[in-house]
Amino acid sequence: MPKIQTFDATGAPAGEMDLPAQVFGVHPQRPMLHRAVIGELANRRTGTHNALTRGDVRGGGRKPWRQKGTGRARAGSRRSPLWTGGGITFGPVPRDHSQSIPRKERQFALRSALSAKTEAGRLVVIESPAGQSKTKAVAALLRAVGAADRPIIVTGAGEAAFARAAANIRGARVMDARRLSVQALLTPGMIVMTKPAVTTLTEVLGA
Predict the structure, then answer these.
(1) Exposed, middle or buried: residue 202 (CB in 10 Å: 0-12, 13-18, 19+)?
(2) For 6-51, how does the pLDDT look when each residue is reduced to its tens digit (9 = 90+)?
């Protein structure tokens, strides 16, 4: 069972904490992490890209010149893809890029990402700063625990004021423990997690 140093709301050491091995101590599997990240990125795509084919471009109803006798190549429309201002051949059309990720596979990918961060010493657990709504105080806390550079702040239930204050910090990313992203967890920044967030993750991922 991994042990980690915890800090209070001011950044001072507050003892050690045992992290559940089933969430923070598993052996990461790179293929599963890769599939989870690719799926998350694909699900963010809107799929609204569109190009006009020759049937969508306005105009081109009249034949530019007669079929024979001009010495020029045959042409039936000014909106041919061969012409300037014409349609696009095989252009992108609206589509759904989303990928279905099995729930258990995604949960294991989250456990793998959290375990990798813990093993690398990139995870910090702090006491719940309940009622903390000052961005200046949150920034001082992040500096004290060595996580001032682009941290991922994970909050639990009842920490809305702390989440709002942390969201004002440039480069910081605030995430709810129930809505974690594998891609975000794999970024180089430190993960700053509150104790309620650890409890929530244990309930959600420890089963």
Answers:
(1) middle
(2) 888 888 888 888 888 898 989 988 999 999 999 999 999 999 999 9
- Cα separation, 156 vs 192, in Å, equals 12
- Tell me the CA distances in angstroms from 17 to 21, 27, 117, 133, one per residue in order: 12, 20, 16, 26
* Range 130-158 burial, b when 16+ CB lie within 10 A, else e: eebeeeebbbebbeebebbeebbbbbbee
**129: which 2 tokens?**
């700063």
Structural fold of domain 3-33+100-205: Ribosomal Protein L4; Chain: A; (3.40.1370)
Beta pairing partners, 16: 5
pTM: 0.80
Give the whole-angstrom CA distance, residue 3 versus residue 19.
6
Instruction: Locate the domains of the chain by residue range.
Output: 3-33+100-205, 46-96
Query: Which residues lie below 8 Å from residue 197, measured CB to CB, with a gap of 6+?
Result: 154, 155, 156, 159, 177
82 CA to centre of own chain: 41
Helix then strand count (H, E) for the chain reads: 7, 6
pLDDT tens sequence across 81-122:
999 999 999 999 999 999 999 999 999 999 999 999 998 889
What is the distance, to the nearest Å, from the Cα of residue 206 to the centroid of all Cα atoms in its chain?
A: 22
